[in-house]
């Protein structure tokens, strides 16, 4: 604790940001994984921001000045990654798809953070029957296959189809229901631990309201694990969104580009040996999830002193143990 | 859950107040308490699903609205009792579930129980195949990664594990199809069997529904070969998803036990590194591995929906999507309830096994 405080007082705020501070204390293989993750995630965010500039065509564009696009055309100069069975340009759809993914991640994680943290604080702080009921419900939801839950939710919300924002919101809500129990558990456990700390008691003695104690004293101390959960949930959100899209409960192709939907359409192409319609959106999913997971993984390892790789002294000891 | 990191858990069992049970009586009491905790889990999920499905409207309008004249539709809704207060219907539904009556599907008028039995066995077969792949890949690779901790092999294997998690089943399925079916032509593209074998299988007397078992019992080797060829790709696609989780699990836990003093003691007595790894370190690591493996059932069921759709494997997941698209919510409700029961029961079994192996789990 004291070393990190020293560190904090010495460095500028940049050095204390989650990923940057982790990068500093990492070494060797762990640093490599973290850097690889940051680079992949960087590419993903860059594609999101620059999609309107980079994409040669719109996500639902079927023709240009020289006529309508051919269908299932192999990669060529005009269509760098080929065209789909519906006549869309694969490269454009892959790039625009990153925007859909980011929007869903942001909306769903923000909603589940808010709900999960609020419920976790309430449940952990007040305890009693409210706590028991919420724990049982959260456990029941937590145990259930998340994708199935998301499917049922998206059917209930959007009845299975919709416009850009309608589809985004339906998917995000569906993913939120899956995530809330996770945030709930972590925050509740932390709240129960913190509630017994002396500083909470002194706040009570001074006469602070429950709301203030929860919001100021407990919440600010319970957020330790949130950056980790954010990166892990971001990758899970992408996978769930793609799963929903693949099963046909996602967003219509004319209102947004979505990787999972494109993969569904590419499935029959694969049987006849057409590779470019499926491989590129699939790679986009894999690389994005890989990047986010590597970042989350490394943060997790670096936060845990038992898993953190050490400089020379540690390696020597290992070797001595082996000999 | 699909999350890679095990979030500190509050087990449902922890809700009940601890009591000082007499030594020896602890296990029995624990099992009883744990068994009764299945019921609220199933009850909550059934309730959630029931009310979520009814938010959309009654099942008959959802399935057949617009296709029937309004008066016929109203008559049908009345006959099925969907115009009564929702709480009355809910109580009735719970009563029916308790007696094992899941109702009749709306689109193809089949008893839901029949439908579940037919497609459930297909999903079971897929899950078993995938589990075999996952264990065969995950455990040995996890042991290697633990042994070679922080070395090159470990790095490669960990990346492989993350890659397994990062690749959606339908994408790995698509790649497998592309390579092994379309390009190499070694394996069939989709389905559970070819049509001819399918007919043979259905002609059998008292089939178990699990095709390879039936083929073995009837001694039909040609059919068995056909079934195996169809089973390979889906099993790999779904198995790899779980294999990554197993790999990491084995690695983390074996690293934990490898650092123990008794390993050092064994090493000083001249026990071989291989034996230390596979016996001394692996066995005590099994308890957390079994617990988390049980939780993977949920991940596997979710993955099965996607795998079945990818490979047109006509199981519960494939059928669920069909029924959802047809808006047949009686059938959907039946499938979801069955899955909830499976998940709850598996978690119970996992806890029981953990309690039997490790006395510290009981309280």
Q: Class by helix and strand content of chain B?
A: mainly alpha
Q: What order do the strands of the largest sheet of chain A run in, or round the barrel if closed?
A: 1-2
Helix content of chain B: over 70%
Task: Just name the CATH architecture of the largest domain in chain B.
Answer: Orthogonal Bundle
* Rg from alpha-carbon coordinates of chain B: 24 Å
Polypeptide structure, described:
Chain A has one domain (26-59, 71-308): MetI-like fold. Chain A has helices at 2-10, 18-25, 28-54, 90-126, 128-143, 146-158, 164-195, 198-206, 210-222, 226-247, 259-271, 276-303, 312-322, and strands at 63-64, 67-68. By secondary structure, chain A is mostly helical. In chain A, strands 1-2 form a two-stranded antiparallel ribbon. Residues 1-9 and 313-323 of chain A have low confidence and may be disordered. Chain B folds into two domains: 26-98, no CATH class; 113-362, Orthogonal Bundle (MetI-like fold). Helices cover 73% and strands 0% of the residues of chain B. Chain B contains 15 helices and no strands. The longest helix of chain B has 39 residues, at 273-311. Chain B is globular and about 85 Å long. Chain B starts with 25 loop residues before the first helix and ends in a 6-residue tail after the last helix. Mean pLDDT of chain B is 76; it is low at 1-24.
Please outline the helices and strands:
The complex is a heterodimer of chains A (323) and B (363).
Chain A: H1 2-10, H2 18-25, H3 28-54, E1 63-64, E2 67-68, H4 90-126, H5 128-143, H6 146-158, H7 164-195, H8 198-206, H9 210-222, H10 226-247, H11 259-271, H12 276-303, H13 312-322
Antiparallel strand pairs in A: 1-2
Helix pairs in contact in A: 2-12, 3-4, 3-12, 4-5, 4-7, 4-9, 4-10, 4-12, 5-7, 6-7, 7-9, 7-10, 8-9, 10-11, 10-12, 11-12
Chain B: H1 26-36, H2 38-55, H3 59-64, H4 70-80, H5 86-98, H6 112-147, H7 152-166, H8 169-183, H9 195-203, H10 211-218, H11 221-258, H12 261-268, H13 273-311, H14 316-325, H15 329-357
Helix pairs in contact in B: 1-15, 2-15, 6-7, 6-11, 6-13, 6-15, 7-11, 8-11, 8-13, 10-11, 11-13, 12-13, 13-14, 13-15, 14-15
């Amino acid at each position: 604790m004291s070393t990190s405080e020293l560190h904090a007082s010495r460095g500028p705020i940049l050095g204390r940001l989650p990923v940057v501070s982790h990068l500093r204390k990492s070494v060797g293989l762990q640093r490599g994984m973290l850097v690889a993750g940051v680079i992949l995630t960087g590419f993903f965010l860059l594609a999101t921001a620059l999609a309107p500039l980079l994409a040669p065509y719109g996500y639902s564009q079927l023709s240009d000045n020289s006529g309508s696009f051919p269908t299932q055309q192999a990669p060529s100069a005009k269509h760098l990654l080929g065209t789909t069975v519906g006549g869309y340009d694969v490269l454009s759809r892959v790039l625009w798809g990153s925007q859909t993914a980011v929007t869903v991640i942001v909306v769903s994680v923000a909603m589940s953070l808010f709900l999960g943290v609020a419920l976790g604080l309430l449940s952990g702080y007040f305890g009693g029957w409210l706590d028991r009921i919420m724990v049982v419900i959260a456990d029941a939801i937590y145990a259930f296959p998340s994708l199935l839950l998301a499917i049922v939710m998206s059917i209930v919300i959007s009845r299975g189809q919709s416009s850009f924002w309608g589809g985004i919101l339906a998917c995000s809500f569906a993913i939120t229901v899956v995530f809330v129990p996770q945030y709930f558990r972590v925050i509740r456990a932390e709240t129960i631990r913190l509630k017994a700390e002396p500083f909470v008691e002194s706040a009570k003695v001074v006469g602070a309201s429950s709301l203030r104690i929860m919001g100021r004293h407990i919440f600010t101390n319970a957020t330790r694990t949130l950056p980790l959960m954010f990166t892990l949930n971001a990758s899970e959100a992408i996978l769930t969104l793609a799963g929903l899209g693949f099963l046909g409960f996602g967003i219509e192709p004319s209102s947004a580009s979505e990787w999972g939907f494109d993969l569904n359409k590419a499935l029959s192409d694969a049987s006849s040996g057409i590779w470019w319609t499926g491989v590129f959106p699939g790679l986009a999913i894999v690389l994005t999830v890989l990047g986010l997971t590597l970042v989350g993984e490394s943060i997790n390892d670096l936060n845990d002193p038992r898993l953190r790789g050490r400089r020379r002294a540690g390696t020597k000891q290992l070797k001595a143990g082996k000999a | 859950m699909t999350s890679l990191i095990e979030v500190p858990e509050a087990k449902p069992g922890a809700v009940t107040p601890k009591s000082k049970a007499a030594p020896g009586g602890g296990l029995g009491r624990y099992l009883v308490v744990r068994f009764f905790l299945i019921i609220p889990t199933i009850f909550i999920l059934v309730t959630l699903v029931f009310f979520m499905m009814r938010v959309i409207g009654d099942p008959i309008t959802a399935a057949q609205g617009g296709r029937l004249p309004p008066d016929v539709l109203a008559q049908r809704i009345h006959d099925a009792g969907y115009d009564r207060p929702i709480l009355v219907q809910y109580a009735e539904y719970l009563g029916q579930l308790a007696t094992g009556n899941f109702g009749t599907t709306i689109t193809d008028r089949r008893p839901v129980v029949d439908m579940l039995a037919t497609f459930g066995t297909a999903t079971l077969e897929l899950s078993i195949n995938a589990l075999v792949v996952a264990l065969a890949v995950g455990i040995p690779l996890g042991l290697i990664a633990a042994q070679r901790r922080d070395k090159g092999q470990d790095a490669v294997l960990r990346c492989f594990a993350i890659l397994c998690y990062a690749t959606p089943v339908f994408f790995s399925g698509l790649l497998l199809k592309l390579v092994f079916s379309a390009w190499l032509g070694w394996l069939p593209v989709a389905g559970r069997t070819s049509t001819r074998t399918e007919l043979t299988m259905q002609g059998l007397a008292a089939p178990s529904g699990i095709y390879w078992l039936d083929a073995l019992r009837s001694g039909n080797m040609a059919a068995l070969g056909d079934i195996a060829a169809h089973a390979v790709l889906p099993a790999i696609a779904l198995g790899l998803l779980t294999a990554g989780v197993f790999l990491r699990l084995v690695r983390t836990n074996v690293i934990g036990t490898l650092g123990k003093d008794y390993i050092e003691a064994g090493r000083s007595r001249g026990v071989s590194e291989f034996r230390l790894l596979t016996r001394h370190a692996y066995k005590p690591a099994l308890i957390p591995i079994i617990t988390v493996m049980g939780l993977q059932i949920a991940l596997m069921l979710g993955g099965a929906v996607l795998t079945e759709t990818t490979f047109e494997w006509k199981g519960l997941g494939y059928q669920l999507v069909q029924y959802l698209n047809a808006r047949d919510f009686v059938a959907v409700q039946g499938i979801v309830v069955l899955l909830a029961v499976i998940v709850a029961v598996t978690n119970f079994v996992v806890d029981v096994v953990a309690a039997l192996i490790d006395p510290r789990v009981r309280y």
